[in-house]
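Record now logged underneath.
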Amino acid sequence: MTKRPQATATVRIDDGRVKATEWAFVPGAETGWHIHEYDYVIVPLTDGRLLLEEPGGTTRTAGLTHGIPYTRKAGVEHNVVNDGEGEMRFLEVEIVG
């Protein structure tokens, strides 16, 4: 199995109430497996397609549209992969306090 490149995380805000992290993915890059400790909002900064690897070996794809946000609750576990042909970026805003 070929090792995937790692997505790059840049923290933009971390003030004790919210944490905003910009994620940048070259094609095929991944976040690595993680569990979200907080409710969060994703704001796509580019259009793109995600491959979401989930517990138990399931996978699904999701399309992102620049500027159209979505939310998820704490407890989500997954590995996020850029499944498109171009760079993909989104802003993850966690509600931490």
Observations:
- Strands lie at 8-14, 18-25, 34-35, 40-44, 48-53, 59-64, 70-72, 77-82, 88-95.
